[in-house]
């Protein structure tokens, strides 16, 4: 037990993004860090007629907390396909695609890192920006497969490719 006069100050050494906690290296655990837990960012919005430069087709705007298993009901409801991890409890929009993103559909539709159309990102200096091929394109391409936690960013929402089944 601590006495009443013992006061503890927690000074985080860094900020760690934590999604499912699956990462083998433990960087999402972030000992001593201020942890930003994305688990409950579970939104899914189907966009049947999405357009941006170079793309005009269906898409989905997704929250970064969605796990692979949670995407199956949406695929069924909208009769569409999104590329997801084979491991069902792996997050589909956190470290998986940022590290490349292997899945059973990769040989047909590409890796997870091939899927983002736009991203909403909180940068290290606290700005909330959109990253796409048109705006902040350096950030857009860096996040797509550059490696989880290699860049100091925090993603909140993406627009991702959807494929006809
Ligand atoms: C049981 C199991 C099955 C697996 N199956 C597959 C598979 O089928 N295919 C495959 O390619 N890999 C697979 N993996 C590996 C998995 O893709 C990686 O461990 C991946 O990093 C997990 O990402 P996560 O977001 O779920 O986990 P977390 O551990 O929460 O995050 C992983 C990394 O991403 C960072 N991160 C998470 N969310 C964000 C965010 N919003 N913004 C910025 N950074 C963020 C974290 O800081 C951390 O460094 C599997 C792993 C396990 C344990």
- By CATH, the topology is Uridine Diphospho-n-acetylenolpyruvylglucosamine Reductase, domain 3
Mean pLDDT: 86
The CATH architecture name reads 2-Layer Sandwich
Helical proportion? 10-25%
Largest sheet: 5 strands, antiparallel
Number of separate structural domains: 1
In short:
The chain has 165 residues and is an alpha+beta fold. It has helices at residues 68-78, 95-98, 106-109, 137-143; strands at residues 15-18, 34-37, 44-52, 55-63, 80-81, 116-123, 128-131, 153-161, 163-164.
What report would you give on this structure?
This protein is of the alpha+beta class and 165 residues long. The chain has a single domain (39-164), classed as 2-Layer Sandwich (Uridine Diphospho-n-acetylenolpyruvylglucosamine Reductase, domain 3). Helix content is 16%, strand content 31%. It has helices at 68-78, 95-98, 106-109, 137-143, and strands at 15-18, 34-37, 44-52, 55-63, 80-81, 116-123, 128-131, 153-161, 163-164. The strands form 3 sheets. It has a 5-stranded antiparallel sheet. A two-stranded parallel ribbon has the order 1-2. A hairpin with a 2-residue loop joins strand 3 and strand 4 (55-63). The longest helix has 11 residues, at 68-78. It is globular and about 60 Å long. The relative contact order is 0.19. The mean pLDDT is 86. Bound molecules: flavin-adenine dinucleotide. Flavin-adenine dinucleotide binds next to strand 1, helix 2 and strand 8.
């Amino acid at each position: 037990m601590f006495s009443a006069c013992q006061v503890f100050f927690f000074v985080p050494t860094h900020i760690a993004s934590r999604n499912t906690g699956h990462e083998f290296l433990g960087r999402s655990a972030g000992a001593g860090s201020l942890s930003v837990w994305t688990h409950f960012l579970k939104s899914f919005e189907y966009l049947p007629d999405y357009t941006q430069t170079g793309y005009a087709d269906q898409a989905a705007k997704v929250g970064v907390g969605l796990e692979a298993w949670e995407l199956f009901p949406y695929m069924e409801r909208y009769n569409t396909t999104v590329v997801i991890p084979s491991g069902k409890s792996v997050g589909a929009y956190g470290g998986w695609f940022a590290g490349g993103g292997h899945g059973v559909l990769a040989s047909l539709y590409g890796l997870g890192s091939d899927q983002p159309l736009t991203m909403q990102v909180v940068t290290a200096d606290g700005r909330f920006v959109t990253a796409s091929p048109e705006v902040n394109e350096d950030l857009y391409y860096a996040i797509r497969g550059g490696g989880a936690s290699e860049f100091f960013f925090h993603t909140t929402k993406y627009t991702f490719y959807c494929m006809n089944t």
